[in-house]
Amino acid sequence: MTETPAALREAHHADVSGGWLRPAVFGAMDGLVTNIALIAGVGGGGVSAHSIVLTGTAGLVAGAISMGLGEYTSVRSANEQVAAEVAKERRELERHPEAEARELSDAWVARGLPRDLADQVAEAVRRNPEEALRVHVREELGVDPDEQPSPWAAAISSFLCFSVGALLPLLSYLLGSTSLALALAVGGVGLFAAGAVVARFTHRPWWAGGLRQLLLGAAAAGATYLVGMLIGVQGGLG
């Protein structure tokens, strides 16, 4: 059977312009690692199960709000910066169209196009002001002004995914268990699963993605557990 070339298929690339995947992944991983490490730290200090739930819940709420606000602010600020640069480029095209066309032609010549062809294409683009603006912005800024990420999508996906990630290591406590080891094991399963899911988007082996996240989370939990245990011992001696 003859395979259809990817260029002839309508959607042969994933949608990477919506701005939701990076904050979703970062939110989920941060929620998992933050609360696993937080629970390991206070658990290592010998506090009660009630105190662990209180600490983990506070970490979930505070972290989710912080992640959502941070993603909204950062994405919106980046979009505003792009908009300012687009406006600057629009003014230059209105004031100095010939110079801008020459700049575009020079860029294409540097990539290997013959000068005559580059000049012809640049002149053809110049006749359509809106298309000229899009082409110049792509060439000079490396962004598409019509496909900027949504700050709301970034904020909401980060908030929700952080909340889900941070909830996992708390689940066993919320269901009545008092075992720190069980809570950390549930969090570890969540880390592995999240890493495996992310690997599907990047076409990496699922087990490699899962193992990487599990090891990173284990390192964070181990460090905070030792700190909690040390502080707990010192507090007891005092």
- Classify the secondary structure makeup into a structural class: mainly alpha
Overall geometric form: elongated
Radius of gyration: 26 Å
Question: Count the strands?
Answer: 0
Q: Percent helix among the residues?
A: over 70%
**Poorly predicted regions:** 11-17
Mean pLDDT: 88
Strand coverage percent: under 5%
- Main beta-sheet annotation: none
Write the H/E string, N to C: HHHHHHHHH
Query: Number of helical segments?
Result: 9
Distance between the termini: 77 Å
Subcellular location: Endomembrane system
Protein name: VIT1/CCC1 transporter family protein
Keywords: Membrane, Transmembrane, Transmembrane helix
Pfam families: VIT1
Question: Short summary of the structure?
Answer:
This protein is mainly alpha-helical and 238 residues long. The chain contains 9 helices and no strands. The chain starts with 20 loop residues before the first helix and ends with a helix.
Kindly describe this structure.
- InterPro entries: Ccc1_fam.
- Pfam families: VIT1 (PF01988).
- This is VIT1/CCC1 transporter family protein.
- Keywords: Membrane, Transmembrane, Transmembrane helix.
- With 238 residues, this protein is an all-alpha fold.
Blueprint (SSEs and pairs):
Elements lengths: L20 H24 L4 H47 L1 H14 L4 H12 L2 H13 L9 H17 L3 H4 L5 H23 L3 H32 L1
Give keywords:
238 residues; mainly alpha; elongated
